[in-house]
Amino acid sequence: FDSNSINKYPFPSEQIPRLSVADPETYRLIKESKPVIITDTNLVGSAAKWDLNYLHENLGKGLFYVYTSNTNKFKYYNSNRAEQCKSFVNPTERHHVTFPQFLQMLKRCSCTDEKVYLQQILNDTVGTNIVDDFLQFNWDWVNKCKAAFGWGQLSSNLLLIGLEGNITPVHYDEQENFFAQISGYKRCILFSPDQFDCLYPHPVAHPCDRQSQVDLSNPDYKRFPKFRNVRPTEAIVGPGDVLYIPMYWWHQIESLLSRGLPPVTVSVNFWYKGSALPDKIEYPLTPQQRVSVMRNVEKMLAAALDDPDKVGGLLRSIVEGRYTDHALS
Ligand code: OGA
Ligand code: FE
């Protein structure tokens, strides 16, 4: 990758460790819900040949979700909620197109400012060669991990084909993720769930639930003063790498410019449901459990008040002038 394409950010960061599948430390980190890059899983080795030509010939005639953006950012939003929310301006546009149409859109990008990003859950519309490649993923290894860490079902595999420069802005997912890089390089910037207060997510009922309101490249410190305290851990993933993104960990993912290669990045992720609740909850809660509690409180209030816009006011009435750090002492 081209090191000139690495954005500069106003915070120091640590490096995510890069370890082997054979290293016991790898499993200790995953068990502790800490990110790690595993360099030699061969998880998606059978997909190493998935360049645009091969995909064109073998993906089949199905339709794919392709997002377009007038900036290099592709902020996720819930389209059902976006439709209900009149004042919301969609940050990207979603298209349902064939693979050849996607290739046309990619070509057009070189002469406009528009960027494109294919993000499609792998399903049974793909051709037989892709199905064969998929069956040759290292299921043995991931299934063993799933069992060892007590994760729930594999919920989906998302195929991501992005243009260099594309950014998926900082957000968290409510699933465990093995993020497998196939071609090109991506910079992944992760923040632990104990930095929730620094990242100011949109309200849970907002179309951009789980997304931070802070723009990492241009943080508004007046609105988001605690963002000054963020301390991410980051890494660049390349072909063959698998990044473990623990559930509820914030992440921003940026496709880097690569010299020589075609200017696209290809990734497939493996999203797993989290582990079941333990029989006995231990205190203090983990940062992840705390986020989950906050989400449930917000959801309950939005439902009870039948109006998401009234949640903030009610929470303020409860807290302001009453609860301080020492309210009960
Ligand atoms: C994810 C994710 C975005 C990207 O896999 O959870 O946020 O651009 N991916 O790869
Ligand atoms: Fe994500």
Automatic annotation (TrEMBL):
Protein name: JmjC domain-containing protein
SUPFAM superfamilies assigned to the protein according to its UniProt record, in alphabetical order: Clavaminate synthase-like
CC terms in the record's Gene Ontology section: cytoplasm; nucleus
Organism from which the protein derives: Ciona savignyi
Any one GO molecular function term: ankyrin repeat binding
Boundaries of every JmjC domain copy: 114-287
Alphabetized Pfam families for the sequence: Cupin_8 (PF13621)
Xref: Gene3D superfamilies: Clavaminate synthase-like, Jelly Rolls
InterPro entries cross-referenced by the UniProt entry: Cupin_8, FIH-1_dom_II, JmjC_dom, RmlC-like_jellyroll
GO biological process, one term: negative regulation of Notch signaling pathway
